[in-house]
Amino acid sequence: MINNSLKLFFSQYSPPARGVYLVSKALNLDLTLVDVNILSKAYLIPELVSINPQHTIPTLQDGSFVVWDSHAIAGYLVGMYGKDDMLYPKDPKKRATIDQRLHFDTENLFPKVVEAIYPILFRGKTAVPSNLRESIKRSYGFLEKFLKKKVWLAGNDLTIADLCCVSSIKKCKQLPYYQEANQRGLDMLGSKIQERLVETYVRNLTIKND
Ligand SMILES: N[C@@H](CCC(=O)N[C@@H](CS)C(=O)NCC(=O)O)C(=O)O
Asked: Is the ipTM of this complex over 0.95?
């Protein structure tokens, strides 16, 4: 379904932006993607800052309505454009479980990704500290427990919890739109991290030899 009024401020390097992109694919919605280079200092484009003072990626503009935070955007897209509520059921118990997973992503998973990756991308660090690696493993352990006896993260059906957390990764890989909507950006982020590690390594060698 093409909706020309839906504009998503997006970056392949942004996991939450890719979460929203996955949701749009699940809904068969065509978004207009505005590619924002979050790796460059010039990413604060006026078009984004004027509608979202927090200037976070992803931000959705639907006509005169603006919403940001990937989880809020995902719920909005299902409510507004879903042919049914399967991806984000209105049933209070089902929704509460999904919301718990989404909040887990906000307060636990994503901050750890940021803590692990940002110092390598932006501050010349070359490794993820071992205590953080342990902490990330604990988070994945929680996800495994959430998944126990369930097909998907919040029950037997795919929901926005899966698409936002992309935690039940093997299942998500089976989705027909997964490669385009997540794997491509994930590979780009992986290559960028490798590139930064090599740059930092070479810079450190040069400093040593000076
Ligand atoms: N909880 C937010 C996190 C959004 C976020 O922090 N996005 C990062 C990119 S992955 C960003 O916009 N960073 C630049 C900034 O905060 O100005 C969400 O789920 O959308």
From this structure: yes
